[in-house]
Design brief:
The complex is a heterodimer of chains A (about 280) and B (about 200). With about 280 residues, chain A is mostly helical. Chain A contains 15 helices and no strands. Classes of the chains: A mainly alpha (about 280), B mainly alpha (about 200).
Chain lengths: ~280, ~200
């Protein structure tokens, strides 16, 4: 028999009142507009695009810092100081100039659209599985990292406080400050950002530190499912191996390590992966 | 019905050649916009009733639509709602887990436990009832709560819920039955508090 819903109950009991109250709950005022802006559909994005593209070097730094570069630097710093190889900051430690590069504003960005919409690395929905990073990935992905950071300033779902700030009153939205940049009518598909990647990996790392390997693996699964370029794949992989070791799944860890080593025998985490390979089976 | 027609017209399989044109991008944007307008409130409510506090429900709702945007070409027309609801359920689950890792209280509201003081007007009464509902729903185990919210509050049918949650229909029905029992038990616990505050 098809169950009937409590809210449809004719009796106005306490439970029914409770449930009916839930149906009247509404999102905060302007939430849909903010979501549109965050997804690159509203005026907020056009303004963000303009701001990111026309700003000076200092302006770009400011915009990028809003997008989370500060957290990248912080994370990299933590990784270097603590010496934890498992930290995703290892790549930055290996090439400290990456942070500087990340903060650079390409001069071309002021005179041309930020990126072609067909670039596969930034098309979350049509991405091929990412190649496992090699030692040279820092250089090879540098361009992508920079583009991702730029695109992030344009189209990532900004935290509400930023999105709210990016949505002006209707009158203010009529005049974007960057006439050289196309508004987002043909905006690219939003992608998960580097900062989101970092946030997930940082949570995974913290879970490993807290000996919560299951949680770490869950986070890493979420990372693997991210619709993004996943530029920190190498870090995710070493974290996964560490979590498996911690969990006692030495066989699985070694299989994963072997796969990683096969793909990148001279990768930044090759030494640690070989250590795992040398662990005795339990 | 009208929006369904628009969505079907805008649907482009990912393998369709030339899907990267500006026209396709504009169509995709329009489709996302339509989805947002049609389903945002529901997604937000689901996230709230699955335990996300006000402070993160909006960000999580944006996340749901970000996922939908990224996978837009793979969402068949007519399947948007189940996709969004399923994504919301997963994202709510992820948020709960990460909140547990951070050892943070998920709801920073000092009103988490309802003040027994009497309400001043209808609005306050509604607010009090919502807080009580949060408390009652929080008493339900996550798997039961999910089924309960989707059935009782969002009006989904059991087979739809089973598909979204990824369990057999029988399991979904059984969870619904147990969820209702748990809900009634929890509601009984807070009912006394609510009516005593009304009488005061």
């Amino acid at each position: 028999m098809k169950p009937t819903r409590l809210v449809e109950d004719s009796e106005d009991g306490f439970e029914v009142r409770l449930l009916r109250t839930a149906l009247t709950e509404e999102p905060p005022h302007g939430a849909i507009l903010r979501a549109e802006a965050a997804l690159g559909l509203g005026v907020g994005t056009a303004m963000a695009t303009a701001a990111a593209a026309t700003s000076s070097h200092a302006g770009a730094l400011h915009a990028l810092s809003h997008a989370g570069v500060a957290s990248i630097v912080k994370w990299a710093g933590i990784g270097m100081v603590s010496g934890l190889v498992v930290a995703g900051g290892a790549r930055f430690a290996a090439d400290p100039s990456l942070c500087d590069k990340l903060l650079e504003t390409p001069s071309a960005s002021t005179s041309a659209p930020i990126r072609a919409p067909t670039r596969p690395a930034l098309r979350g929905a049509t991405l091929a599985p990412p190649a496992f990073p090699t030692t040279s990935m820092v250089d090879s992905t540098h361009h992508e990292v920079r583009e991702v950071a730029q695109a992030e300033a344009v189209s990532r779902p900004l935290p509400r406080r930023f999105v709210a700030a990016a949505i002006p009153a209707p009158a203010a939205s009529a005049e974007p400050s960057a006439p050289s940049i196309e508004p987002s009518s043909n905006a690219v598909t939003p992608i998960a950002s580097v900062t989101e990647e970092l946030a997930i990996l940082e949570r995974a790392r913290q879970a490993i530190v807290a000996h919560a390997s299951d949680v770490a693996l869950h986070e890493l699964d979420a990372y693997a499912a991210m619709p993004s370029a996943r530029v920190l794949g190498a870090e995710a992989e070493i974290l996964a191996v560490e979590a498996l070791v911690q969990r006692g799944n030495i066989g699985a860890a070694q299989a994963r390590a072997a796969r990683s080593l096969g793909l990148a025998p001279a990768g930044p985490h090759a030494a640690r992966l070989r250590e795992v390979m040398a662990l005795p089976e339990r | 019905m009208g929006s369904r027609v628009v969505l079907r017209a805008m649907w482009r399989p990912s393998e369709l050649p030339g899907s990267d044109t500006a026209e396709d991008a504009a169509l995709s944007n329009q489709r996302v916009k339509t989805l947002l307008r049609a389903h945002y409130k529901e997604v937000w409510r689901i996230l709230r009733h699955l335990g996300l506090p006000m402070s993160v429900a909006e960000d999580a709702a944006q996340q749901v639509f970000l996922v939908a945007t990224a996978k837009l070409s793979r969402i068949e027309p007519g399947k948007e709602r189940p996709f969004l609801i399923g994504t919301a359920v997963r994202i709510a689950s992820n948020h709960r887990r990460s909140a547990a890792v951070r050892y943070e209280c998920p709801d920073e509201s000092p009103e988490r436990h309802v003040d027994a003081a009497p309400g001043l007007d209808e609005l306050l009464d509604q607010k009090r009832l919502r807080l009580l509902l949060d408390e009652v729903l929080a008493a339900l185990p996550v798997d039961l709560r999910t089924v309960f919210v989707l059935f009782e509050l969002e009006g989904l049918e059991v087979p739809e819920i089973a598909e979204i949650v990824g369990v057999p229909r029988g399991t979904a029905s059984s969870r619904l039955r147990r969820a209702r029992e748990a809900f009634e038990r929890a509601a009984r616990r807070v009912r006394g508090r609510y009516f005593s505050s009304e009488e005061t």
